[in-house]
Each structure stands twice: as structure tokens, then as C-alpha cells.
Amino acid sequence: MKLESGFENRRGRLEMVSLMDVMFLILAFFIYSIFSMTVHHGLRVNLPGGTGETQREEPVVVSIAADGTLALNRRMFSDEDALVEAILKMGSADTSVLIAADRDSKLGLGISLLEKMQRSGISKVAFQVDRKKP
Predict the structure, then answer these.
(1) Whole-prediction pTM
(2) CATH topology classification for 60-127
């Protein structure tokens, strides 16, 4: 004797509610991971406005704070010569350096740092600006 349970003729179906829940969780995961992928290697400074190009390679970031404090990838330096020596130890003279100076920092410090880098043979130096500010 063959008993029928009623499930023999039913087709399989895809539950959309659970699939949508999983997709929203994946979307939320990717949004949070994008926010954590932004990397800034310097100190937080108030950048001056200007136009500039986006660099393609990962530069060495030198930060000049408003009080004149120098930092290389968040490592503090008190002397410009020691900072230039540390840049040369990190890579070759072909290393690209990005100077992120605070809007209120002294111009003379940035110019003297730029001159010492040039004398040491570092040729790829750029100043970071904020495109949003006038």
C-alpha cells in the first residue's frame, strides 16, 4: 500500500525574504569596510585650498602642524635634518614625498624642508591641498 503525504507534487520554491536579508547584510558589510579602508598616514591638519592632481602611488607623508611640529607617517621629529635622513632610509631618492602642512603653519618651515629634501636628492615632492576650500 502506498501512502501519499501531499509533498510529491509540490515544487521547490525560493524564499525571497531570507535572500533579501542576506543581501542587505552583505551591503552593510561592504559599506563599513569601505569607510575603514581610507588611510591617512599624517597628522590631522587644516589644509589650504587649491587645485591639484591625485597621486597614483603611495607617498611618504610629512606633516607640519600649526605649531611647527614635524611628523613622518605619524612619527614625530624635532629636527628637519633628522626627518630628511629618515625619508632617505625609508626608500631611495626616487621616493615620492607628500607635505601636508597646516594652513596656519609658517611658510618658512615648509620652504626650508623642501630645500633640504632637494639638496639630499629627493626630487618628487608635492604639497597636499584641499580641493574643496577656495
Answers:
(1) 0.55
(2) Nucleotidyltransferase; domain 5 (3.30.420)
